[in-house]
Amino acid sequence: MRNYIRHFQLTFAFVLMTFFASAQCEIENENFSEWEDVSEFIFQDLGITPDTAVYNPVGWFSFLRVFSIAFSDLFGGILMGPDSTDLANSYSGIRRYVVDEANEDYAVCLTPDGFADFADLFTLFECSEQPSHISFDLKYEGERMDEIEVIYVSGENDPFTAYLELESEEDFERLGILGFSNGILQGGPDEFTRFSLEINYTEGVVNDPEIMDTAMLWIFAYGDTTGIKEGLQGKYIIDNVSLEFPTASAVTVQDNYFSVYPNPTSSIVNINMQHQEPTQYRVFNAIGQEINRGQFLGNIKLNLENFGAGIYTIQVDDGKFTKMKKVIKR
Q: Mean pLDDT across the stretch 278-291?
């Protein structure tokens, strides 16, 4: 994902921070109930007058949406005829999804299609605490093999710059990244399912208590280019994003759907499911790169000996549920 962003680093994303100040460690408009018309912003920045209103969820922004609209306006008239700005509205990647019209219950829909085959949404907020998890409801509607990536970065420095410069686990301390989480899912459940990503904190990063940390939550959807060319549809719907905080009285609830052991490990890690159904597994490193994948029945031994020390994410998908666990490689 960062390969896309390196070509489009603009200062406007950081200026936006001055226009929304949320409470300490709270995500603004976390249930996507409030939306605003950003057509004027598009006109001022690109000189494009959309044929219909373009909406964004309040408190959330798209780093790449403006490029999708610009590309559509620039090339749409050549490739698709004169209705290029209308095409831009359809393919800009962010839509309001109606969960319950009567109760004004909405979610956000990311559709990674169009000229760029991606869609993104981010929010920035100040954070004086250390949340333990990011949780959200997610479902996928479609036939393609799209992917969605959820990224959390916090620290005293600019989280965008820190993330874009992140190349390996050794960079966390150098870049001042205090909190970090990165989860990737291909496809997804066809009904709203609650996901929870653990936030890892970097040892050795000591922040000034007088300076408020800045946190970034970035959701990025990639389009399956083969599926798009074949005319297949696909979209991610996200709702009820929240941060979870540990408390002194909290009881740790173990997820026994599958187990990973030993953890930490120096080489071999076992994955045991509670059933003998065909299950897909994927392994990601700390910066979200897939390093291994496969299929098994019931249990499997993975050899991490050739991978460096660090924190890895193991994801399993049996067609009913998608679950993730962290494993530490020494």
A: 86
- The CATH number of 258-329 is 2.60.40.3080
Beta-sheet strands, E only, within 167-309: 179-186, 193-198, 200-201, 213-222, 234-244, 258-261, 268-273, 278-284, 290-297, 299-303
CATH class of 2-244: mainly beta
* Virtual torsion, Cα 53, 242, 123, 205, nearest 10 deg: -170
317: β partners: 280, 322
- Express each pLDDT in 26-76 by its tens digit: 899 999 999 988 777 767 766 667 667 778 899 998 877 666 666 655 554
All structural domains of the chain with their residue ranges:
2-244, 258-329
Q: Is the pLDDT of residue 298 over 60?
A: yes
Do 2-244 and 258-329 show the same overall fold?
no
SS3 for 124?
Answer: strand
For 310-326, what is each residue's pLDDT tens digit?
Answer: 888 888 888 877 788 88
151: its two tokens: 């990224």
- Name the pTM for this structure: 0.72
Cβ-Cβ contacts under 8 Å for 100 (sequence gap 6 or more): none
| Alpha-carbon torsion angle 322, 131, 6, 18, nearest 10 | 130
> What is the Cα–Cα distance from 108 to 32, expressed in whole angstroms?
6
- What separation in angstroms does the CA of 326 have from each of 19, 149, 322? 36, 16, 14
Task: Report the SS3 class of residue 173.
Answer: helix
List of residues 6+ apart from 38 with CB closer than 8 A: 54, 55, 56
Write out the H or E segment, with its range, that includes residue 35.
Answer: strand 35-37
